[in-house]
Amino acid sequence: MSERYTIGEAAKKLQVSTRTLRFYEEKDLVRPAYTEENGYRFYEKDQIRQLELILFLKELGFSLKQIKILIQDEHGSQSLELLLKEQYQENQRKIEEVSKKQAQIKHLQKIRLSHAVLTNHSVITDIMRKEHRLSTLRRRMCFLGILLVLGELMGISLLYAFKVQMSVAVIGITVVGAIALAKYYYDHVEYVCPNCGDVFIPSFLAFNLAPHTPKFRKLTCPKCGKRSYCLEISRE
């Protein structure tokens, strides 16, 4: 006689509830090997294997509708290959969505804004909306910065290879370029005070002299008067 399991034993073996097995039966996914007159359901190895397959596919993200089509399809291997491809693409899309949300959460964790800012939903929305534009601006600044460094190297080379006057002119142009680059960046950013949530634009001098990190600059808020590391965001 083949090994058999009551619904309770099968549920325990598969680490699911008896309600789940009854649900699968109602959906015509896996029926017990047989049911006795008293209503007791019994499962055998074939049904256990089917249930293990269903649970495995569910863990991979397949819907019960997809699993049912797969089980009932005569060309199961071909259907499985197609469904695996589709599910892989769907899972990748979900991973990308979760990754974006994780990046936003990580960014908000770094901000460490006060309660005044957290209760101002419009400020938080603006911060997240402007993050992409700020990233684009920084990439552009990196490119322009590289060009500026190349200009400085050219000026130093000319210092040794040609007349000093020409080198001084090139270095002068480079300095002017550095100031113009700083002004360009300044004109595209503003700052959020972590204490009162005010969004403000400092003077160009304060902007250049303030200590800073890649995302923060130590400035004095014109509204609350406190000097602290303010979050840098993109201007409209």
From TrEMBL:
GO terms for molecular function: DNA binding; DNA-binding transcription factor activity. Keywords: DNA-binding, Membrane, Repressor, Transcription, Transcription regulation, Transmembrane, Transmembrane helix. CDD domains: HTH_TipAL-Mta. Residues 4-73 form the HTH merR-type domain. It comes from the Bacteria. It holds the Pfam family MerR_1. The keyword Transmembrane helix applies. SUPFAM superfamilies: Putative DNA-binding domain (SSF46955). The chain crosses the membrane at residues 141-162, 168-186. PANTHER family: MERR-FAMILY TRANSCRIPTIONAL REGULATOR (PTHR30204:SF69), REDOX-CYCLING DRUG-SENSING TRANSCRIPTIONAL ACTIVATOR SOXR (PTHR30204). This is MerR family transcripitonal regulator. It comes from Lactobacillus johnsonii N6.2. The lineage of its organism: Bacteria, Bacillati, Bacillota, Bacilli, Lactobacillales.
